[in-house]
Design brief:
Structural class: mainly alpha
Helix content: 25-40%
Oligomer: single chain
Number of strands: 3
């Protein structure tokens, strides 16, 4: 046969594509990745801190199960959960890289309950970075925690 066109393969049951994850799982995985990126930017993504992220993701899985319309808020809520847990155990995180005050202060997640969360300096009223993008913020996220990214 001179025809170089390959013959079509018969349908195989093992060739069906895997189903894509549901929107909840995609949102949870994205939230985890964003918060871990911010923690890594501040060089605070130690195992015990990563465990805090996992605890939050687990809790938010239940929360969104109760309120499915809240799925788009998960990234900001996980960031807030981790920030609160770090405050209780280690200190403020992430520190504001904008203000040159004697008293360090943490950034806040805004909106508190909404899509597209950002880290904001509440004192200066300045958006510092989107959640997940602290490594690109000026002065935030140096490897030694310089610029205010690590817990104090």
């Amino acid at each position: 046969m001179d025809d170089e066109t390959p013959a079509p393969e018969p349908d195989r049951p093992d060739a069906t594509p895997a189903p894509s994850p549901d929107p909840l799982e995609r949102a949870l995985h994205a939230a985890r990745a964003l918060v871990l990126a911010d923690l890594a930017a501040g060089d605070v993504a130690r195992p015990e801190v990563v465990s805090l992220v996992e605890e939050s993701v687990s809790h938010r899985r239940w929360w969104v199960g109760q309120w499915p319309e809240g799925v788009e808020f998960v990234a900001g809520l996980v960031a807030q959960d981790v920030q609160d847990a770090l405050m209780e155990r280690y200190g403020r995180w992430p520190l504001c890289p904008v203000c040159a005050e004697a008293e360090p202060h943490a950034l806040e997640v805004e909106p508190e309950l909404g899509p597209d969360p950002h880290w904001v300096c509440g004192k200066a009223g300045v958006v510092v970075a989107a959640v997940g993008a602290l490594g690109g913020a000026d002065g935030a996220g140096g490897p030694d925690g310089a610029g205010g990214a690590g817990p104090v």
